[in-house]
Amino acid sequence: GGTKSVAEQVNRQIIGIDPGAGIMKSANKAIETYGLKDWKLVEGSGAAMTAALDKAIKDKKPIIVTGWTPHWMFAKYELKYLSDPKNAFGGDEQIHTIARLGLKTDHPSAYAALDRFEWTPDDMAVVMGAVQDGKKPEQAAKDWVDANADKVGKWIEGIDKADGKSLKLGYVAWDSEIASTNVIKYVLESKLGYKVTALQVEAGPMWAGVAGGDTDAMVAAWLPTTHADYLDKYKDKVEDLGPNLNGTKTGLVVPAYMDIDSIEDLAK
Length: 268
Ligand code: PBE
Known about the structure:
3-stranded antiparallel beta sheet; binds 1,1-dimethyl-prolinium; 41% helix; alpha/beta; amine transmembrane transporter activity; carnitine transmembrane transporter activity; elongated; D-Maltodextrin-Binding Protein, domain 2; single chain; membrane; 2 domains
């Protein structure tokens, strides 16, 4: 028999994550932009995607997933992004912190710390890697904060303690956001005295929660591209506190052993 095309090898399937994730929107845009007729973007979750990737790599099978950086999967496996010459996944972006309207007045200390919260992909990688190695996210966050007193000190320097006031953060169970949310939660609790609930939800409810005022803040907004629709919908109902991390990327990711380099190649 002849050699199968990549499209045939992977059954014209891209393994996606939760349907509310912005990367799903970008992946659908890629399917359209590159004319990937009859391709299917499979919905699931971040955990299901990494499980499928792990299994494919163990079996040396081809697979295409929606992937993003920072993520521990790039340390664990040899992977590559497919190039995206038509820019379906957008250019550079950052992860932003988003607060509900009125947070500044109601919880000035939390607002100030959230506003200053800022770290790097390398920082995040430490927490993500520890969680991936089996540490509880709370413990991994605490260990990172304890080891990075200088950095954390700048987020909280001169801010008054809050005496047990309650705060609610929203997040989605993406590995990157499990790391960041647990870090800022631990800082607000251990350094500023808040009682913090971190509520795990889907992306839509996470944005809606902050916009509606039920959730005080979140540190999981990928902008300007990945969450553009959400920001557009809620821009008058939330306050964007700016980037907390620079140097992200999203796209279609494959094992390095696959003989393919560009999303354009999928149409062949
Ligand atoms: N992600 C990780 C999210 C943002 C964080 C890229 C999976 C998304 O696609 O919405």
